[in-house]
Amino acid sequence: VGELAKSFLWNPFFPVRLEDTLFHVLLLISKHRIQVVPVVEQSNLKVTGFVTQNAVIQLLLQSDGLTWFDCIAEKALSEFRFENESVSFVYGDESIADALHVLFKSQTGAVAVINRQTRMLIGSVRNGDVYLLMENDKIFRDRKVVTVEEFIRIETSDRDPDPTIERDMGALLSAGVLQLRNKYRPRMDSPVTNKKTDTLKEAMKNVARTKSDFCFQVDDSQHLLGILTLRDIILQFSPPSMNSNIDGGGFFETALELTGCQIKGGTLVCDH
């Protein structure tokens, strides 16, 4: 149990307050490998909600049409170099136990499922899908016998028909409105995909619409090329890196200058 508990301590805990901005959240996500930012009340530190990476993507899409956004988002995926150039996978005829081993070892949050004969992408197994083993004793007992392809076709009953967090956010851009709204997850046998020729904006709309944590990059024959995570996308719009010499986008550099701040030696320095 102790070893299992340690596996849940990969990510640090960095809460934000209701009055904090999206800029603040982008700083946290770009500097630390966190998928969810808790929103707390300043008075009693009570957690009132969460800012998810998917919610950040939806907020960024509110800037669709603005020059600073489109100059980045309208580039083809092939023009970017993302962190996850390779993707972990298992074949559909392998066991669930094999998939779980690869999932735990890779620590990427998802493992692609490939048809051994055609080499085509047929699904994925994610960290969040492991709960199905806890709900179904038979599958858990037979995890070394049941194939991954059989597992990804299991029907679940807790699906929300509307995969959006908030259809119309309007001017409500504070962290407090970005909370987990439902339990919708794409089916394991219907992976979210994009092609290298698609734009970053198209990929963003794809993951936002399906509320997915990632999308697989495939060719015209559905052969797996890579994986694109929400963090990969967010980093393209993030402020100048706080822990490297890589600069961020021009929009954020200008925004920092207007507030009297700049990045020096990997540290945020303010004139006031």
UniProtKB/TrEMBL annotation:
Alphabetical keyword list: CBS domain, Repeat
Pfam assignment, any one: CBS
Superkingdom of the organism of origin: Eukaryota
CDD domains reported for this sequence: CBS_pair_SF
Domain CBS: 9-66, 184-244
Keyword flag Repeat: yes
Xref: InterPro entries: AMPK_gamma/SDS23_families, CBS_dom, CBS_dom_sf
Record-given protein name: CBS domain-containing protein
Organism from which the protein derives: Gossypium lobatum
